[in-house]
Amino acid sequence: MNHLLDTLSLPPPADAELAAAVHRQYTLKPGVHDTRIQVAVVRGIVRLTGFTDNLLSLERAEELARAVGGVRGVVNELQMRTADLPDELLQQRAAALLAAECGPHPAVQLAVQHATATLSGVVDSWVVKQWLLRVVKQVVGIWHVQDRLTCTAAQGISDADLSLYLDEQLTWDAYLRADGVDVQVQRGRVRLRGAVDSDCTRSRLVATAWAAGATAVDAGQLAVGVWARPAAQPRAPRLRVPDGDSAQAIHDAWQLDERLGTDLPAVEVVNGVATLNGAVSTVRARQAAEQDARNATGIWHVNNHLRVWPRRLPDDAELLHSLHRAQAHDAYVQALPVNWAVEHGRAILHGTVPGHFEKARLQELAVGTAGVLSVVNALLVQAHTSRPPRPAAAADVPPPLVA
């Protein structure tokens, strides 16, 4: 227990040090191009703004920031801005990338429809499943990934494959720095040697080896000591955080999050479960409050009981005018001929837009408008092959295929 007490007694890193550590995570761990991501830290709360060009980068930016020791919470305002490509081309690129990165998996099927990739079939371990999903999420132009893969027990997995799967998972795990760990595989048995910073990290390494398909795991020569981790490096996962500290982290994140406005809801944390109560003015505020709570340190589950109820509830005609005005003032979608309708506070969108970014942008305008109680987004994305290329801004230079 001494190493844990030593860790808890260390002073918290300064905000500038935490911001540098987040950027260092983006450099050391794969999956994030941070050239268009801005990182700001206030009282240990990380705020991410800007754009990414693929699903994996969007997810990893938040995951890696949360994993930095000293970070109390993450306010994630990142958006995805990427090319709109035909489904046939997306499927070709995803299939080629899967073959190049993961090798043949004859029991796995890939289908792409409306920029949504679906993976189905059977794999022999949880690690392989995560690997396949990560690869597909790297493809620029894919907006959603559906996981319909089933895991079965590995049958006679080779040492080479087991070593490959294990190295892959250790490389991508946000909470692990495996550079001080030696991994040996022989006849399905995994032997771990070296040093890690906590019992939690040691347990995670052992669990990763089992998940990769090991028949036995020997971690007897894996030492534990706080000296194994420099300051502001990935923290050990699942360290116990007092409920009061978690609640304060959520409240501090809400104060930093402009999407919530000035009326902050109430939060109660019991055994790592956060319960949100009260009223917020917009649908976006309700979503952001839950997201911030989930990203707070020590939280593993959130009960969102928030109601969307602005101080003044406009009638449908006034609300429709507000939506038209919001679109007219947005540089990205102001010229799009979409149809708005409002029924008892529910905003309904109809029409056709050039791409998925514009569809998501109009949805954001609706959920951020005070008085909108729910949104139905029935917008269609224009057929990729039937529209002329969209003029590219300076920040919209076509990105590479893989992050």
From TrEMBL:
Parts forming coiled coils: none
Pfam families named among the record's database cross-references: BON
InterPro entries on file: BON_dom, Lipoprotein_DolP, Transpt-assoc_nodulatn_dom_bac
Domain BON: from-to ranges: 14-82, 242-310, 315-383
Gene3D superfamilies, per database record: 3.30.1340.30, 3.40.1520.20
Protein origin, superkingdom: Bacteria
Name by which UniProt lists this protein: BON domain-containing protein
